Amino acid sequence: MNKQDIRIDFFRGSGPGGQHRNTSETGVRITHLPSGLVVTATESRSRHQNLQKAMARLEEKLAARLRKRRPRIATRPGKNAILRRLDGKRRQREKKQRRRKVDE
């Protein structure tokens, strides 16, 4: 990850923390420009700690993006699923049979 690929913004974190938190810009927002990923960290009152947490989160997100997903293995439906489907079909059949004209 290059330094040119990221933009770091600092902002005032909201929430509890008192006067120190309200006056200092300790919240960190990191934007990864090539991918458009954005991560933030505002937990700590320390800008340095928030910067470390945000960098860790960004690396984690980028690694997750590169990870390949395993293909889903098709499995046969379970016994109850088959019975539910057949029961629904039976009910539908009976409903349609009730709509027919009565033979005399």
Salient structural properties:
Double Stranded RNA Binding Domain; single chain; 16% strand; 104 residues; alpha+beta; 3 helices; three-stranded antiparallel beta sheet
What's this, in brief?
By secondary structure, the protein is an alpha+beta fold. It is built from three helices and three strands.
Radius of gyration of CA atoms, rounded to a whole number: 29 Å
- How do the helices and strands follow one another from N- to C-terminus? EHEEHH
- The side-by-side strand order for the widest beta sheet comes to 1-2-3
> Which structural category do the helix and sheet elements fall into?
alpha+beta
Low-pLDDT runs: none
> Residue-averaged pLDDT, rounded?
90
Strand content: 15-25%
Give the CATH class of the domain at 3-66. Alpha Beta
Give the termini distance in whole angstroms.
Answer: 83 Å
Query: How many strands in all?
Result: 3
Summarize the amount of helix as a percent range. 40-55%
CATH topology of the domain at 3-66: Double Stranded RNA Binding Domain
Level-2 CATH architecture of the domain at 3-66 = 2-Layer Sandwich
Please describe the biggest sheet, giving its number of strands, its sense, and whether it closes into a barrel. 3 strands, antiparallel
Global shape: elongated
Number of helices: 3
